[in-house]
Amino acid sequence: MKAGQITVVASYNFSLFLKGERLPGPGETVIADEFFEGGGGKGSNQALTAAVLGAPTRLVVKMGTDRYGDTAWQMYEQHQLSTQFIIRDSSTHTGIAVIFIDKDGHNLISVAPGTNYKLSKDDIDASELAFADASLVGFQLENRLEVVQYAIRKVHSLGVTTLLDPAPATKLPEDLLPCIEYIKPNEHEAEITTGIPVRDVDTARQAGRWLVEDGVKTAIITLGELGAVWVAEKTEGYLAPPCVEAIDTTGAGDVFSGAFMAAYSQGKSLEEGIRFANTAAAISVTRLGVVSAIPKLWEVNEMLRQRAA
Questions:
Q1: Is 6-25+33-308 assigned to CATH 3.40.1190.20?
Q2: What is the arrangement of strands in the sheet containing 218-222, beginning at the earlier edge strand?
Q3: Helix H or strand E encompassing 221
Q4: Tens digits of residue pLDDT in 209-268
Q5: Cβ atoms within 10 Å, residue 171
Q6: Active site residue 175
Q7: What is the tens place of the pLDDT at every residue in 82-121?
Q8: Which H or E element spans position 45?
Q9: Which residues contact 269 (CB under 8 A, 6 or more apart)?
Q10: Catalytic residue among 89, 123, 248, 254
Q11: Predicted structure pTM score
Q12: What gap in Å lies between CA 187 and CA 89, rounded to an integer?
């Protein structure tokens, strides 16, 4: 197994951001104060974060042959992600997301999956080399669920560590959970996955225990500004994040997952990895956008040093 190598079975969406005083309600038009655009998609964001934070990273992803796919390819090359397993498909458009952000950094998102839903089991089989020598393979649920499940089972059968960020949230088959070493839902996703209302640290622990008792090796439940809870078979804990002023929370969960994968690739312990991920996500919410908000490794290390002091 190639030490440190991260592979992400990914979604990619080109994102259009509108930032204003508040979010629109049903049937309502509101005026935005700012507009910007950039690459996104949960898997893509996570892979970019891992790469920016020092992990050798590659993507298994399907994109269109349109200008959005071209832009993504250029972005990946710029950030030194391996493009070996990127698949281009001319049958439909690259994934598109429209994101509304209010003055407090809360968001509302709509996604047209496009080529993300074209990723197939055959594509997964053709990408087996990307899994076999990885130290960890990351997943989300923005591709078709049956394809993600197939890929998780394949990676698990190869003896490679798996991490699932279960978003958009859905109930998962019980026999899939033992194939997952790490699962990282936020409080809303944990509630949908487990049926346990997650409102605070204690209820997050309850949801984490449910996941571990059903077969997951380690559950990491993020609670936004409250931090993160983890539960494993023989240990559990809680870490509060750095105190920052958030202006845009879009993508913070992706930065957390990508940072945790980077920490894993560097051989950090579970608690060290969560502290590292908490810190990276906290820095990201102080900036607009997603890719543009990913912190550099020195920034994360400097904030960790300041907190330790």
A1: yes
A2: 86-89, 57-64, 6-9, 136-139, 161-164, 182-183, 218-222, 228-232, 236-239
A3: strand 218-222
A4: 999 999 999 999 999 989 999 999 999 999 998 989 998 888 999 999 999 999 999 999
A5: 11
A6: no
A7: 999 999 999 999 999 899 999 988 889 888 999 999 999 9
A8: helix 42-52
A9: none
A10: 254
A11: 0.91
A12: 35
